[in-house]
């Protein structure tokens, strides 16, 4: 399959690469990660001013009508430069779900402010009972006074410490805790009574929180999508989110490969660069093949999603499984070829390793996607 980018898509990729190369150095990234806030307001506002936050939204929503390919192009560059700003959480997930199914008054109030960088959002859908399974929802939302009363807790709410809005999953029906039926989504402002949280840093440099909901009262307009059918309703947005993290993984793997090849030319053993040793050259060739195979599958998946191909979901499942395997392979070999220095905070290699490990389990593990692939 040959996929040729349009002129606009090429400009998007090149402008993102140029801006991040010139302004998002590893040293600046580390300063942001080690700050109390955990992301750069200046960088986030620049992303909004450049139109990146609105790129994949419909024109009537204030966007530019992009799709999965545009998401891919942006997130691959984000992965290459280890961007920590919450594009996936605030824009792809929260923004995408608000556009797709929020009440018109809610969409009008919040969506434009998200795309302008004024507000940020955080999806709260994981629970401690099983952090790898978004269907395991024990948080409840009971009918109450024309609205709902929500009780429960959420874990690993990435971007939670900075979020102005939380998109919370809760069970309004269903007979078991992991039933696809009976899950609903609710949009909550940060200052909603009954919300409490505990902030922390994740091991890949993000900010997250544990979210507690105690008798949180919401009205019916807070529901995003259809009551009890959040799994089916959110599927297209989740598909784009998976493309986003897989594209980020490809960018990270590409950067790791480049760093490893460059290091092998500088480090010397037995009086010559280690890049001259055939066994290490074979190792780096294998890394290159994993990166390119994953990139090809990523492009095919994004194209299939945008064109509505019947096998798009099967391709998406295969992509997530492939990213789990390829990311692990490339990251482990990069660490081994760098030696002990590859694990230090001062070098970017270890930080790519951590991010790829986190991406490998996001939205489910590689094993769970392999099982889904063979069932499809």
> What is the alpha-carbon Rg in Å?
21 Å
Strand % is 15-25%
Mean pLDDT: 93
Could you give the distance between the termini?
Answer: 22 Å
Would you tell me which CATH topology of the largest domain applies? Butyryl-CoA Dehydrogenase, subunit A, domain 3
Using the 3D structure, state the CATH architecture of the largest domain.
Answer: Up-down Bundle
The helical percent reads: 40-55%
Instruction: Please state how the strands of the largest beta sheet are arranged side by side.
Output: 1-4-5-8
Q: What's the order of the H and E elements?
A: HHHHHHEEEEEEEEHEEHHHH
Mass-distribution shape: globular
Number of helices: 11
Give me the oligomer status: single chain
For this structure, what is the CATH homologous superfamily of the largest domain? Butyryl-CoA Dehydrogenase, subunit A, domain 3
**Low-confidence residue ranges:** none
CATH structural class of the largest domain: Mainly Alpha
Extended strand count: 10
Major sheet characteristics: 4 strands, mixed
**Count of domain modules:** 3
Query: What structural class is derived from the secondary structure elements?
Result: alpha+beta
Please give a structural write-up.
The chain has helices spanning 7-23, 26-33, 41-49, 68-80, 87-101, 104-115, 230-266, 278-307, 312-338, 348-361, 366-375; strands at residues 121-124, 140-144, 147-158, 165-171, 183-189, 195-201, 207-219, 223-224, 268-269, 272-273. It has 376 residues and is α+β, with helices and mostly antiparallel strands. It has a four-stranded mixed sheet with strand order 1-4-5-8, with helices on one face. It has a four-stranded antiparallel sheet with strand order 2-3-7-6, with no helix packed on it. A two-stranded antiparallel ribbon has the order 9-10. A hairpin with a 2-residue loop joins strand 9 and strand 10 (272-273). It is globular, with a radius of gyration of 21 Å. The model has no long low-confidence stretch (mean pLDDT 93).
